[in-house]
Amino acid sequence: MFAELPNTINDFQTWDWAKIEPYFKALEARDLTEANVIEWLNDWAKLNFLIGETHSRLYVGTTVDTTDEATEKRYNAYLEDILQPTNVAAQRLKEKLIASGLKPEGYSIELRNMRTEAELFREENVPLFTQESKLGTEYDKIIGAQTVQWEGQERTIAQMKPVYQDGDRSKRESAWRMVSQRQLADRSALNELWQRFLKLRTEIAGNADMPDYRAYRWRNFLRFDYTPDDCARFEDAIAEVVVPAATRIYEQRAKRLGVGAVRPWDLDVDPLGRAPLRPFSDIDTLNHTTSTIFHKVDPQLGDYFDVMQREKLLDLDNHKGKAPGGYCTYFPVAQRPFIFMNAVGLHDDVQTLLHEGGHSFHAFEASKLPLYQQGDVPIEFAEVASMSMEHLAGRYLTQAEGGFYSEADAARARIEHLQSDILFWPYMAIVDAFQQWVYTHADDAMNPDNCDAKWGELQDRFQPGIDYTGLEDAKVTGWHRKLHIFQIPFYYVDYGIAQVGAVQVWRNSLKDQAKAVADYRHALSLGGTKSLPELFKAAGAKFAMDADTLREAVDLIETTCAKLEPA
Ligand SMILES: [Zn+2]
Questions:
Q1: 357: part of which helix (H) or strand (E)?
Q2: Looking at the predicted structure, is the pLDDT value of residue 478 above 90?
């Protein structure tokens, strides 16, 4: 019967659960043997791909046109009517495969993941996840409703961002203070929402017989290659090695701005008073130039990008009705990635496209694996693919190489990027250390005052270079403004780890670009079939969270920036 499954998504998209369910039943009923287990896994994968691609395409539909209510309705119905029963049916298939004791070739990582997921699954948690995502929606509503009156116009907090690039310091300060005041007006609402999140998460962990939510989340995220203790050591190493380097950046910034210390409203303005970079004025230029850059990095990667252009798998320009942000998703039946973003002509847009391009190359490379091995790539390595590409493409940003910029502007873009890497690690450390504390001190963390105190303490430890004097309330409520803490708990250290990998890939490319790119492509082609240390190693990097590796990264970044500095 699986041979009759549609080969394209078109015929499958309208299938309801009554039509899909018999396939799961058939998989469940089949006797598993050494001889047929691969076929069984491939059949299951085919079914998953059809469901997954329908889900992805509906999601894309909701983001390219947020006013399309019919698609939104179909998307929500798909979550409930198809994905929820699919998850329950998948749980039974996982249990069946584990009980069979069979160990299909090249499938050990997937089996390990499956076993963990099956052990953690509790039917009584399913409605709690729905409650949790509803709380997430409430968070979005509170944040989304925050606006200020600026120069006679109502502006969202995101729309205020450009003002922080203004050369007029007092203008920046009044904008910042106005935004901060508006955010603090929601302090008690967010505190109350927080308590509901925490209570719910404690319950989810308890249902799964885990000692605390951190232990739950660790398994839920399939983190086998590092522990919470490793994260604590990572944070110590960041405090020792990266924080002093970040402070040097803030001090240089203060000096160039001619101010005593960097205040929160001084972080986005160009310290040398230059106008923002304007790499392109139309999407065609963004497309062509990025294609040229990718071809320079590697002809095959350039070809992948051109396939995406030809097959209309890029939705890059910003227009009314589009959802904010950028992402790369995957259509597993078509075996094609899709990139979404909101380009308006800034360097950030170039950076985003290089980043999402890295994700899309991962999809192309990993789709060469046999169907049944095309599982999920761990996020810590998925971000190595994207962040490395931002670096690998860095040397081709100049017009001489076919890129966007003069030599001077390219150097400026590189410095900004490299410095942002250094500034990110300490912030990541705050976010992670805060959550480590929260979920191991859930009783204390039920009192938002304690959370404020903890955040303030971490802020002092990891970002001493930013002067918050007289801004205590804004400082200690920083956790209110980190979406991940509310909506995707513990999802953040992953970026810090990935960045360690990406800097090493870049380091390799400075010695031998061709070999670095070849290793990078090979590592991507392994998909999720290897452990994190093996994936990093294949990419030519060490999976590491220690001070020595960080020191090497920071030294390289600082020496490179010094060379790129304008004379
Ligand atoms: Zn990414």
A1: helix 347-366
A2: yes
Task: Find out whether 173 and 263 touch, Cβ atoms under 8 Å.
Answer: yes
272-296 as b/e, with b when 16 or more CB fall inside 10 Å? Answer: eeeeebebbeebeebbebbbbbbbb
The Cβ of residue 321 has, within 10 Å, a number of other Cβ atoms equal to: 10
Q: Ligand 1: distance of its center to the CA of 494 in Å?
A: 10
Predicted structure pTM score: 0.95
pLDDT tens, 85-121?
998 999 999 999 999 999 999 899 999 999 999 999 9
| 398 backbone dihedrals φ, ψ, rounded to 5° | -80, 150
Give Cα separations from 61 to 57, 75, 90, 313, 323 (angstroms): 6, 9, 26, 13, 10
Measured distance between the N- and C-terminal CA atoms of the chain, rounded to whole angstroms = 70
Q: What is the DSSP string of 432-443?
A: HHHHHHHHHSHH
Among 398, 420, 415, smallest CA distance to 407 is for: 398
444 closest CA partner among 138, 132, 135, 194: 194
Query: Is the torsion defined by CA of 91, 92, 97, 100 positive or negative?
Result: positive
Please state the φ and ψ torsions of residue 339, each to the nearest 5 degrees: -115, 135
Query: How far is it, in rounded angstroms, from Cα 50 to Cα 282?
Result: 35
Closest CA to 544 of 244, 243, 226, 236: 226
Question: 343 alpha carbon to ligand 1 midpoint, in Å?
Answer: 16
Buried b (16+ CB within 10 A) or exposed e, 349-373: bbbbbbbbbbbbbbbbbbbebebbb
Smallest CA-to-CA distance from 393 within 505, 252, 318, 316 is with 505
Residue 153 phi/psi, 5° resolution?
-125, 145
Task: Give mean pLDDT, residues 18-45.
Answer: 96
C-beta of residue 213 within 8 angstroms of C-beta of residue 132: no
- State in Å: Cα 387 to ligand 1 middle: 7
- Residue-wise pLDDT for 388-423, tens only, equals 999 999 999 999 999 999 999 999 999 999 999 999
Q: Is the dihedral of CA 367, 527, 497, 538 positive or negative?
A: negative
Q: Which residues surround ligand 1, an ion (CB under 5 A)?
A: 386
Distance 356 CA to ligand 1 centre (A): 6
Let me know how many helices (H) and strands (E) the chain has, helices first.
24, 5
**DSSP letter for each residue of 145-210:** T-EEEETTEEEETGGGGGGGG-S-HHHHHHHHHHHHHHHHTTHHHHHHHHHHHHHHHHHHHHHTT-
Distance from Cα 178 to the centre of ligand 1, integer Å: 31
